[in-house]
Specification:
Blueprint lengths: L1 H36 L1 H5 L2 E3 L23 H8 L1 H11 L6 E2 L6 E2 L11 H9 L5 H23 L4 H13 L1 H4 L7 H6 L5 H4 L5 H18 L4 H12 L8 H18 L1 H9 L47 H13 L3 H17 L11 H25 L3 H24 L4 E3 L19 E4 L26 H7 L9 H5 L8 E7 L4 H8 L2 E6 L10 E5 L5 E5 L4 E8 L2 E4 L2 E2 L9 E5 L9 E7 L7 E7 L4 E5 L3 E5 L7 E3 L3 E3 L11 E3 L4 H4 L10 E8 L2 E8 L3 E8 L5 E5 L2 E3 L2 E3 L3 E6 L2 E9 L3 H23 L1
Parallel strand pairs: 5-6, 19-20
Antiparallel strand pairs: 1-4, 2-3, 6-17, 7-15, 8-14, 9-13, 9-15, 10-11, 10-14, 12-13, 16-17, 18-23, 21-22, 22-28, 23-27, 24-25, 24-28, 26-27
């Protein structure tokens, strides 16, 4: 290698001077790059804030004026990575294993890179102040992409100017800059580091194995988008310059490193499989359309979109600009270095995989392969610069290098900066769609139509039954009836069966008022005849149907008081204005949800001396109550939604021929025969206390007979371990997706905890110790 050669000829002092020159050149390029790219931050008091795109959706959108739009990458970031970064900064390690705030609960940020658990976003979250996470993340990605590519090119013997110019091409290329606002940004920016083990100078096999272990471990943490970089590293290993070494010995170090890396990453790999639905193989390969190679010269059109349904994968941008491609042509024409041929092969392979049509694509995706294409172009451009500098004197190299840098920046910066949504620092943060305290008991919300897009509420610590991406949870998506973009139809959102998944709160955007209209359209009426003397002051009694939310009487009827009575006592009903805007012909009175859930007797006291032989009473059995109303939203509450922890009063087998019972807990067909005896309607089994965090639920239950306790945590038997009075018990899938725990009679302390097995942690510890030991041994030598 070039550095090894200079060390032998020029000595350590010469070599140190070369390293200092490389470091100073890289620092100067980085300083200029950050100043130009982030000048709104340094001089205009702005910050990067993709969440501002949500101001186009209620409840944050102004009712007057045009609907604001944004780029697809910005809209995607505001709904995917943005809420997860805000949630990690809010909760820290509490949501590392399990995240209860998105889609009824799913694996936390340790379970999948797509949940925000990649290195650079985590580093930005733990280093940056609130509201500055995105700015810190993009800055970290630019620095990481530049330094990683610079290191790779310097390892190949390129001079400081060619290496810096090639690193500039890679850091600002479309395949990398288009991923700055996605979870794939870490893989795109840190990917060049995966090639370093194949480019290291000759070293003992233990050191090479440790370097390969670190590379594979980084690939696991960054996710599938880093696998093409790892494949390019294997290509460099097989086609490297050290051809004198026998092939088996060259493969021994990578094989040992692979085993160490898999052992070190075993808890993450286990957690990814254990946190998905049973029978579903987790995959993050995107289904984006084939890339168009013409975009290498021309950036894709900036098509504005709204925040309501951005694509799950915005797709890559292949733009690298004309100056970079001209340098590639110079490298192919003038530079006869063997590395040029290897990089050309990587370029052709990556371009072919990116342009494959969808039916022929198996393990590759344009979004994943495009950064490798950018790295190959950056490396060839660097060799093109090297060919130019060889024909120049030393006095002209700095001038030509500066001119090439200006040409590359002028070509790449406009397209790269277009991906950055700058917002004034003084812009206030988005308020929560409802107070986070409303979900303190484990209940969840659902928003109607275009209000509070899926995943966005997690930024405020509010749990949502919806999720923008449920491709790995088909059973849960079917239970909710969610659309492809995670939205619910109006009929499905108002269906009382939605209470089975804990959807206690409904956010309705104004001025639509579709909920009250749907409630009014479904009211039932009853004609009541007054008995006895019509002039007496005795109240008229009417049976109150179970589940009634409000009672309506004619507005012209002179009613003095409306009361309800059951075995618990007599209750005065207060006037309710939720349906007042639907018709002036009715007056409505709210029925308390808890004491009168089972019905009772309605008492209407009319004014004395009123001669009314009969009158009409209306019943609203929707179960919805108007909890609050603001300028932009109406917040509805479903008090009878099932809580986080409840006892099954009735059981029903899944896919059974018996009539559907909305109050029954549905069990899988194979579990129903063994557990059917646990249903006891009207039993006195009660849940006394409930305490929950992101990774545990604890409850105290008093049962007079054996019962089935249902916890609204998705059934993941390998991840969630249930104990009753300290003894581990098996769990079953209840209510289609939740966790059921059989209980014995008596008082029980129930705990449901998400845990990673100890054997995976032990294997990870041994793998990490092996990597450190091999590196430490090299330093001693």
């Amino acid at each position: 290698m070039a550095c090894q050669h200079t060390r032998e000829q020029g000595g350590p002092h010469y070599n140190d001077r070369v390293y200092r020159q490389q470091a100073s050149t890289a620092a100067a390029f980085l300083l200029v790059l950050l100043l130009v790219l982030f000048y709104p931050v340094f001089f205009l008091q702005q910050r990067i804030a993709p969440e501002s795109a949500l101001r186009a959706a209620p409840p944050w959108r102004a009712q007057l004026g045009p609907v604001p739009t944004s780029l697809a990458t910005t809209a995607h970031a505001s709904r995917h990575l943005g809420p997860r970064l805000a949630l990690i900064q809010r909760t820290g390690f509490a949501t590392a294993i399990w995240n209860p705030f998105i889609g009824g609960g799913r694996g936390g940020w340790l379970s999948s890179p797509a949940e925000g658990g990649t290195p650079l976003p985590l580093l930005a979250v733990f280093l940056a102040r609130p509201r500055w996470v995105w700015t810190a993340l993009v800055a970290l990605q630019v620095v990481a992409a530049f330094l990683a590519c610079f290191w790779v090119l310097a390892r190949q013997g390129l001079g400081r100017w060619p290496a810096a110019l090639g690193a500039t091409v890679f850091a600002l290329a479309g395949p990398v800059s288009s991923q700055w606002l996605t979870w794939r940004g870490s893989a795109a920016c840190l990917g060049p580091l995966l090639l370093l083990p194949a480019l290291l100078p000759p070293a003992p096999w233990r050191r090479r194995a440790a370097s390969w272990a670190l590379a594979v471990l980084l690939a696991v943490v960054c996710g599938p988008p880093s696998l093409p970089f790892l494949a390019a590293g294997v290509v460099w290993l097989l086609l490297g310059l050290e051809r004198a070494r026998p092939r088996p010995s060259r493969l021994l170090a990578p094989a040992a490193g692979l085993l160490l890396a898999l052992a070190a990453a075993l808890p993450l790999l286990w957690l990814q499989r254990a946190s998905t639905e049973e029978g579903i193989v987790p995959s993050t390969f995107a289904s984006s359309p084939p890339a168009r190679l013409l975009e290498l010269l021309r950036p894709p059109a900036a098509t504005p979109v709204g925040p309501l349904a951005p694509p799950l994968d915005p797709g890559p941008s292949l733009f690298v600009g004309l100056p970079a491609l001209l340098l590639v042509g110079i490298a192919l024409a003038w530079n006869r270095h063997r590395a040029v041929a290897t990089w050309l092969g990587v370029l052709v392979a990556a371009a072919g995989c990116a342009a494959l049509p969808l039916p022929l694509r198996c393990l590759s995706s344009p979004t994943h392969v495009a950064p490798v294409l950018a790295l190959a172009i950056a490396a060839l451009a660097a060799y093109g610069c090297e060919a130019i500098f060889r024909r120049l004197g030393s006095n002209w190299q700095g001038i030509v290098g500066a001119m090439l840098a200006c040409a590359l920046l002028a070509s790449l910066l406009p397209a790269a900066g277009r991906n950055l949504p700058f917002t004034p620092v003084a812009e206030p943060p988005l308020p929560a769609p409802l107070p986070a305290s409303a979900c303190a008991d484990g209940s969840r919300m659902v928003a109607l139509l275009d209000a509070a897009p899926p995943d966005s509420a997690a930024a405020s610590g509010v749990a949502d039954v919806r999720a923008a991406d449920l491709r790995h949870e088909p059973r849960y998506a079917a239970a909710l009836g969610l659309g492809p973009d995670g939205t619910l139809s109006l009929a499905q959102a108002l269906d009382p069966s939605l209470g089975r998944v804990g959807a206690r709160w409904i956010v309705e955007p104004l001025p639509l008022r579709v909920v009250s209209g749907s409630i009014f359209a479904a009211i039932e009426t009853t004609t009541v005849s007054r008995g006895g003397s019509r002039s007496d002051h005795l109240p008229s009694t009417v049976p109150l149907p179970p589940g009634t939310a409000r009672v309506g009487v004619a507005a012209a009827l002179p009613v003095e008081a409306v009361l309800a009575r059951n075995e618990q006592g007599l209750f005065a009903l207060s006037e309710d204005r939720a349906l007042a805007g639907e018709s002036d012909a009715w007056r409505w009175f709210a029925v308390p949800a808890q004491p009168l859930a089972g019905g009772g007797l309605l008492l209407l006291r009319l004014a004395s001396g009123v001669d009314v032989p009969e009158f009409t009473v209306a019943w609203d059995r929707s179960g919805l109550y108007l909890a609050a109303e603001t300028e932009s939203t109406r917040l509805w509450e479903r008090p009878r939604a099932r809580p986080l922890v409840y006892v099954a009063q009735a059981l029903q087998a899944e896919h059974s021929q018996t009539p559907y019972d909305p109050e029954a807990v549905v069990l899988a067909g194979e579990d129903f025969p063994a557990l059917s005896h646990l249903a006891h309607p009207g039993s006195r089994t009660r849940v006394e206390t409930v305490r929950w965090t992101g990774g545990s639920v604890r409850a105290t239950v008093a049962a007079e007979r054996p019962a089935l306790l249902v916890v609204q945590v998705k059934h993941r038997p390998r991840l969630w371990r249930a104990t009753v009075n300290g003894q581990r018990v098996p769990t079953v899938r209840a209510d289609l997706v939740w966790t059921g725990i059989p209980l014995v009679a008596g008082r029980s302390q129930v705990a449901l905890e998400a845990r990673v097995p100890g054997w995976t942690l032990l294997a990870s510890l041994l793998g990490c110790c092996g990597i450190v030991a091999w590196l430490a041994r090299r330093r001693k030598q």
